[in-house]
Amino acid sequence: MSFGFASPDNANLNTTGPDPMGRVENQQPPMKRDRIYSLPHGRVGDFTFDEQVVEVFPDMIARSVPGYASILSMIEQLAGRFVQPHTNVYDLGCSLGAATLLMQRQVPRDCTIHAVDNAPAMIDRLRLKLQATLPDPNQGTVEVHQADVCEFPMTNASFVVLNLTLQFIATEQRATLLNAVADALVPGGALLVSEKICFEDAKQQSLLNDLHHDFKRANGYSDLEIAQKRTALENRLLPETMKTHVDRLYAAGFDCVVPWFQCFNFVSILAVKAGAAP
Ligand SMILES: C[S@@+](CC[C@H](N)C(=O)[O-])C[C@H]1O[C@@H](n2cnc3c(N)ncnc32)[C@H](O)[C@@H]1O
Ligand SMILES: O=C(O)C(=O)C[C@]1(C(=O)O)C=C[C@@H](O)C=C1
């Protein structure tokens, strides 16, 4: 089945590489296709961000998350708006630094972007990627940290990104993490949270789940791949409702909480701290 939209599949991602947004550019190395769940697994283990996943991650996320490239593009735009001079930017659960590298284009040299992830394979690959990039003296610097975002100290932050990361944190730890982000933000600073969500209404849940699976099928995943990945994520990716997210962000002390993006069961929310930027 093929649709008219520019899916990662019809963008021919096998022969050319992605830029940080997952768009096609010729100067990048070829992106490896995700075939992790293409053959039957005797027992499907819990999903982990290990070497095997890291190897195919850009292809996997682009073919699995509807709107991923759009969200990344807007993260760059939002960084341009919210990052304040002499502050820190945090990319929590940075993976291979897709958001970090886009934000860096908007972040002045007196700022530091802290790219944080607890998966050693992700961090090793990100460090190699950064070593291969010539630093631009006009842009902010990137510091890479292999750490648990729930324990990572944050201070003097103007923009914080949790792009598809909160969903992997134990639900009982989420409020503490969001409170820490709200405390670390300067007045007028902002947090962006992108998540897979669930729905209280059974019909909405079933419809958007089906539409997500149609999206995956249209991007070349088989029913077996979809089913096995679903099993692998069952205890690892724990979606919550939009109301749970919004209420918890207000409870953390944010002044304005607004869902700005939704594609099927994936959303992105912007939460702004009160006060004017100096
Ligand atoms: C779906 S990926 C995030 C994608 C990435 N933000 C992007 O925009 O391309 C989730 C990431 O969160 C990381 N992660 C999950 N739990 C974490 C934790 N407690 N501390 C740090 N990183 C975590 C995983 O290792 C993984 O790289
Ligand atoms: O929900 C799914 O089926 C997914 O594959 C989603 C998802 C995510 O949202 O992070 C899960 C694991 C990978 O990181 C890439 C995509």
From TrEMBL:
Which positions does UniProt annotate for S-adenosyl-L-methionine binding?
68, 93-95, 117-118, 148-149, 163, 230
Asked if the record carries the keyword Amino-acid biosynthesis, the reply is no
> Which organism was this protein described from?
Novipirellula galeiformis
- Catalytic activity reported: prephenate + S-adenosyl-L-methionine = carboxy-S-adenosyl-L-methionine + 3-phenylpyruvate + H2O
Q: Which family does it belong to?
A: Belongs to the class I-like SAM-binding methyltransferase superfamily. Cx-SAM synthase family.
**Stated role:** Catalyzes the conversion of S-adenosyl-L-methionine (SAM) to carboxy-S-adenosyl-L-methionine (Cx-SAM).
User: Under which name does UniProt file this protein?
Assistant: Carboxy-S-adenosyl-L-methionine synthase
Q: Where is this region: Disordered?
A: 1-31
Which molecular-function annotation in GO is an example for this chain? methyltransferase activity
EC number(s) on file:
2.1.3.-
By which gene is this protein encoded? cmoA
